[in-house]
Amino acid sequence: MTLTLALARLAWKRLWRGKMVWISGLLVLVPLSIAAIAPRDRSPERRFELIVELTLRSLVLLVPVLHLAPVVGEESERKTYTYLWSRPVPRPTLLWGNLLVILPLAAVAAAATLAAAFALIGGEVEWLARAQAGAAAGVAGASAFALGVGALFPRHPLVVTLAWVFLGEQILPEIPSVQNLSIVRHATTIAGHGGDDPAGAALAVAILSAIWLAVAVWRIKRMEFGSAEG
Amino acid sequence: MTPRAEIHDLGYEPYRGARTPPARRFLTVARNVFAVAWGSRWGVKLPFIISVSTFVGASVVMYVARNRLFDMVRERGAPIPRAEQIIFFAFTYGFELAAYVLAAVVACAAVANDLRLGAFQFYFSRPLRARDYLAGKLLGLALVIGVPLFTGPVLLAVVRVCFAEDAAQAVSLLPVIPRAALLGLLGTAAFVLPPAALGALLGRRQPAQALFVVYFVVLTNAALAMAAVLKVPELSLLDVGHDVQVVGRALFGVGGGWPNVGPWPAAAALAVVCALSLAALWWRVAKAETSELGGS
Amino acid sequence: MTAVVLEDVSKWYGQVLGVANVSLTVGPGITGLLGPNGAGKTTLMKLIAGLLRPSRGRAAIGDAAPWSDLAARRRLGYCPEHEGIYEELTGLELVTAMAELSGMSRRRARERAEAALVDLGLADAMNRRLGGYSKGMRQRAKLAQALAHEPEVLLLDEPLTGCDPIARESLVARIRDLGAAGKTVLVSSHVLHEVEALTHDIVVMFRGRVLAEGDVYRLRELIDEHPHRVRVECDRPRALAEALIGEDHVTRAAFEDGAVELMTRVPDKLYDAIPAAAAARGVKIRALTSPDNNLQAVFEYLTEKK
């Protein structure tokens, strides 16, 4: 745990001094802007549903992907892995340390965005609670997915994960035989905007997350960096 | 007293062979961009596969769409595109997808990697001007991204002309080729300049890729949504991809595509974004030319 | 005392050979790892650091394999040769974090990090971000992160790169202290005089293989068939050369201003013959040196032969 915390501290400092955090800030503004201008002729429930869907598809999916997908690739690209993995640090600790920073931060950002949108739109508190639960589940699933795919494709982690988010996550929910692979679909169900089995959706997110994390751990443990040099 | 000076002959022989003229040195940079991009494996080969598939698929659809049966159905008001309009749809749903991947993989990294790796020292310690570097980079990127976005529609336009039933129809279809070329040029500019500028401004490939994707997918969709909700179609001009499509619709006579502010405002918005991107690139490269030489 | 042991270690990167059949034991003290670029020095270091898994054979620190055993890496400090570093962090943050990751408590890690940075001359810069460090400062910060947790085994890959002469001198002294303190220090370099300033125990690598290992002077002696130069500074070089050229092991004499350079196949015989010849001819000898009794000569000979 000490090692995980040490790596989390490292990730925290790098996060706030890097540029990605500003891009994530932009993503927070999108649902809020739409909430502010959503047409008043629609019911608050419909307007909030629109914001929830937008939040799940942008902020919830993208913030973990932007921050977690490059974790392994960036260590490789900058060769900083040499400092970490020549020490008595189990390699998956790198994943846990970053997860410990990004997951709560993204979940809080999504929850706060939804709360702010809810304050603008109004409605029943239960909508907000469910939406926040859906967002939290979505952040967890997206984080695990980002780490897994990032470890599988360390050279172009962002391009691959973002392509999946914008293509795979659009197509998967429409195909009955594979729609259970979609994180957005389950998060939407938990948020109360589709499907009728939030508990099943939560279980599905947990299983998907476990699979992606297992992939990330498997990959990072076997990963060898470096080329024929010196 | 006159200071003494002496040059010792240490056997150094300056290079006396042919040198590339300064005006053509940007071609070396362009070649390098193309070679590096081609070496990036799936980042380039996947878009290439998408482009070839789009070309083959669109050619087949164009061949079928020439059938008189479709003309008859079309005359009764069915929304079936004409064969040459397939070029626009292939551009929007196939070639642009390939260009999007290329822009993220290659264009975002083109200047950003040079900044990160300190490659400007190598460029500007030679008789290479900032404008040669920039011209070479942009030409190289245009060659890479122009494969799907320019060559794709132009070749489809040629195929369409070849599918003409007679010489008269072929002649009447010839204007499709320059229209496809114009659409290809605009698309190439839209997918080369903004991502390269993002890379130059952020100085790192991955934040540039992230911002490019967030802009092209999230922010532009938000702009379109706002345009619809606020009933201010001009907001859609913030979406560069949409601007290219609006011009493309006008060029190929394809309707729809709301919010559609018309081709001229869209072309103007595109020109402004490209000019701003170019200015940002120039500023960053000129700064690097003067400040990033020498060791530390 | 911890030794680094490599037993028949090979590493391939796909079709490319990194190192081949390396068997080596590096004990306490300083050992220089020499070789031209691409010889396999960094690959060997990475294998010892646990960053690479041997394709064949066994690498160990003490009894533990660094690739799979955290206990092995607990004893290790590694200073890589590349310039990659966490540019967003300050020097102090980097070294503290790395010491913490090596198993120190946070408080102790910070204390040790400060001490290491001060020791390496970064007292004033330790709270500045690494992104703003010069090349020499980065090099010292990299060394500090390798030293702060007081490891038993130190792998220093080109540690003096980018350092100015003053920093270089202080780093050489620091590394020598570590060797004298009984730590196992493996220093790689392709700059021979750097290694020569640190140690006479060398391992020479070339094209992924170990060409030679041991004391540089002993190695020189082993290269018997290689002609050996002896330079004699004296008042009458030609007279001395006349007396010695008749010896069957002397193959050549070359004259300089006030000196003669003799080439021999049997250096010991020549060293015996010179005083006798000088005495017989009344030649006054000022200095006697051997240009070949240094690392450069050994290295050139070994690598040229391949």
Account of the protein in words:
The complex is a heterotrimer of chains A (230), B (296) and C (306). Chain A is an all-alpha fold. Chain A has helices at 2-17, 20-37, 44-68, 70-77, 81-84, 92-121, 125-152, 157-171, 183-190, 198-222. In chain A, helix 3 (44-68) packs antiparallel against helix 8 (157-171) and helix 4 (70-77) packs parallel to helix 7 (125-152). Chain A is globular and about 60 Å long. Chain A starts with a helix and ends in an 8-residue tail after the last helix. The mean pLDDT of chain A is 90. With 296 residues, chain B is mostly helical. Chain B is built from eleven helices and no strands. Chain B has helices at residues 26-38, 42-65, 68-75, 85-117, 120-124, 130-162, 167-173, 176-202, 205-229, 240-252, 263-291. In chain B, helix 4 runs antiparallel to helix 6 (130-162) and helix 8 (176-202) packs across helix 9. Chain B starts with 25 loop residues before the first helix and ends in a 5-residue tail after the last helix. With 306 residues, chain C is of the alpha/beta class. Chain C is built from eleven helices and 13 strands. The mean pLDDT of chain C is 87. In chain C, 38% of the residues lie in helices and 28% in strands. The longest helix of chain C is centred in the middle third of the chain and has 16 residues, at 165-180. In chain C, strands 5-6-7-3-8-9 form a six-stranded mixed beta sheet, with helices on both faces. Chain C has a four-stranded antiparallel beta sheet with strand order 11-12-10-13, covered by helices on one side. The two termini of chain C are 35 Å apart. The interface between A and C is large, with 30 and 47 residues.
Task: Pick out its properties.
heterotrimer; B: mainly alpha; 11 helices; C: six-stranded mixed β-sheet; 13 strands
Describe the structure concisely for a colleague:
The complex is a heterotrimer of chains A (230), B (296) and C (306). With 230 residues, chain A is mostly helical. Chain A is 77% helix and 0% strand.
Give the topology.
The complex is a heterotrimer of chains A (230), B (296) and C (306).
Chain A: H1 2-17, H2 20-37, H3 44-68, H4 70-77, H5 81-84, H6 92-121, H7 125-152, H8 157-171, H9 183-190, H10 198-222
Helix pairs in contact in A: 1-6, 2-3, 2-6, 3-6, 3-7, 3-8, 4-7, 6-7, 7-8, 7-9, 7-10, 9-10
Chain B: H1 26-38, H2 42-65, H3 68-75, H4 85-117, H5 120-124, H6 130-162, H7 167-173, H8 176-202, H9 205-229, H10 240-252, H11 263-291
Chain C: E1 4-13, E2 16-26, E3 29-34, H1 41-49, E4 56-61, H2 70-74, E5 76-79, H3 91-101, H4 106-119, H5 135-147, E6 153-157, H6 165-180, E7 184-189, H7 192-198, E8 201-206, E9 209-215, H8 216-222, E10 228-234, H9 237-244, E11 250-256, E12 259-264, H10 267-281, E13 285-289, H11 295-305
Parallel strand pairs in C: 3-7, 3-8, 5-6, 6-7
Antiparallel strand pairs in C: 1-2, 1-4, 8-9, 10-12, 10-13, 11-12
Helix pairs in contact in C: 3-4, 3-5, 4-5, 9-10
